[in-house]
Structures are given as C-alpha cells and as structure tokens.
Amino acid sequence: MKNAILINWDNGSIIIVFGFGFVIIALVAAVYLLMSNDKKKK
Known about the structure:
rod-shaped
C-alpha cells in the first residue's frame, strides 16, 4: 500500500483540482441563474 495517495501534488495537479472546482461552481451558478430567471418570467 505504498501508493495509497492518489494525487501527486508535485506536478501542479493542485491547479487542475482548483480549476475543476471552479468549473463545477460556475456550472452550478449558471443553472441557479437560469432557474431564477425562469421564475421571474412567470
């Protein structure tokens, strides 16, 4: 079980993790904005 750590933080993968998190947050925000705009029209 030497390789129990799945992410090697030395290769700049922390940037990829934060980038992926930012994309997920942006998608959730876009869906929320679309839902709120849809409710205003009704």
